[in-house]
């Protein structure tokens, strides 16, 4: 099941996209949904045969399909099956669009829209969104060098109960060298938890850029190393903030040199800026 933000540890691995020729809300109808026992992928074996319910995707979160708040569920009174074919029936349905079958006592509380990791300037930014939260105590961000052994990076408080989009972000200031793996663990107030998908980030710190000579009279040599081959933007600003030099270079992986001609510039203090997808570097330069 993809594209709707469900978590299969508490949902059947099948979804239904039902449309109506009448605009919602429609007159209440009775809805029956069937699934295969093999599609009952709930993590806890006891959950597979507990009472099931139906939830409806409103565009911002999961509700009961009859105008209820995000996080509500229409209970069926029917227990799930792990083999054969299961069918549940719910009444009073007035809204149509994507539907899922969920554990009745644990409807989908957290709608995780997106999680991603980006390396910038030697740090990893982990960002995620939720469209709804119910009884959400906190998030735990874990990381791993091999995707098998995990360590806790940090924890972030959840919103408790919310039906609006929430944005979260943490920074790994000391990322693991090379490829690292991150995942998000969400924990309810009752201690139950769910995991996100794994995010892979390759973040290699750029060594400190060296300038020489500084102060300088005629030329300025810039030396740095990088794990990437990428375009970089080099600029020089005078003390008033005016840009007096700008040029793009195709930086190669490994050691790289750039020589700037400083002879045309007046004596004084300048600011060197080097920007790329992985570098955000600024340093003062003195022209004698």
Give an account of the 3D structure.
The protein has 288 residues and is an all-beta fold. It has strands at 11-17, 29-36, 51-57, 62-63, 74-79, 85-93, 98-103, 112-120, 123-130, 133-144, 151-162, 166-172, 179-188, 193-195, 199-202, 210-212, 219-226, 230-237, 243-251, 254-261, 268-275, 280-287. Strand 13 and strand 14 (193-195) form a beta hairpin. It starts with 10 loop residues before the first strand and ends with a strand.
Blueprint (SSEs and pairs):
Layout: E1 11-17, E2 29-36, E3 51-57, E4 62-63, E5 74-79, E6 85-93, E7 98-103, E8 112-120, E9 123-130, E10 133-144, E11 151-162, E12 166-172, E13 179-188, E14 193-195, E15 199-202, E16 210-212, E17 219-226, E18 230-237, E19 243-251, E20 254-261, E21 268-275, E22 280-287
Antiparallel strand pairs: 1-7, 2-6, 3-4, 3-5, 3-7, 8-9, 9-12, 10-11, 10-13, 13-14, 13-15, 16-17, 17-20, 18-19, 18-21, 21-22
Radius of gyration from CA coordinates = 27 Å
Mean pLDDT: 84
Poorly predicted spans: 1-7
The helix-strand sequence is: EEEEEEEEEEEEEEEEEEEEEE
Number of helices: 0
Domain count: the total is: 3
Distance between the termini: 65 Å
Counted beta strands: 22
Strand content: over 45%
Q: Share of helix among residues? A: under 10%
Q: Mind summarizing the main beta sheet? A: 5 strands, antiparallel
Q: What would the principal axes of the Cα set say about the shape?
A: elongated
Query: Based on helices, strands and strand pairing, what is the structural class?
Result: mainly beta
What's a quick, concise take on this entry?
Helices cover 0% and strands 56% of the residues. The protein is mainly beta and 288 residues long.
């Amino acid at each position: 099941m993809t594209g709707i933000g469900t978590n299969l540890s508490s949902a059947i691995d099948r979804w239904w996209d039902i449309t109506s020729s009448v605009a919602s809300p429609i007159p209440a109808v009775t809805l029956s949904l069937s699934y295969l026992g093999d599609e009952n992928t709930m993590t806890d074996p006891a959950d597979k045969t507990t009472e099931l319910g139906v939830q409806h995707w409103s565009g911002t979160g999961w509700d009961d399909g009859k105008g209820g708040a995000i996080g509500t569920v229409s209970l069926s009174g029917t227990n799930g099956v792990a083999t054969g074919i299961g069918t549940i029936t719910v009444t009073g349905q007035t809204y149509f669009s994507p539907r899922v079958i969920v554990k009745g006592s644990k409807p989908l509380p957290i709608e995780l829209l997106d999680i991603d990791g980006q390396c910038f300037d030697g740090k990893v930014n982990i960002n995620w969104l939720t469209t709804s939260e119910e009884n959400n105590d906190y998030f735990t961000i874990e990381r791993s060098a091999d995707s098998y052994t995990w360590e806790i990076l940090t924890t972030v408080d959840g919103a408790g109960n919310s039906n609006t989009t929430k944005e979260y972000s943490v920074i790994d200031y000391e990322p693991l060298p090379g490829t690292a793996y991150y995942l998000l663990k969400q924990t309810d107030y009752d201690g139950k938890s769910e995991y996100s998908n794994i995010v892979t980030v390759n973040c290699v710190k750029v060594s400190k850029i060296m300038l020489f000579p500084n102060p300088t009279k005629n030329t300025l040599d810039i030396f740095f190393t990088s794990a990437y081959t990428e375009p970089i933007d080099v600029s020089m600003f005078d003390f008033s903030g005016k840009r007096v030099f700008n040029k793009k270079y195709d930086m190669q992986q490994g050691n790289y040199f750039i020589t700037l001609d400083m002879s045309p510039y007046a004596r004084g203090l300048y600011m060197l800026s080097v920007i790329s997808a992985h570098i955000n570097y600024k340093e003062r330069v003195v022209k004698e």
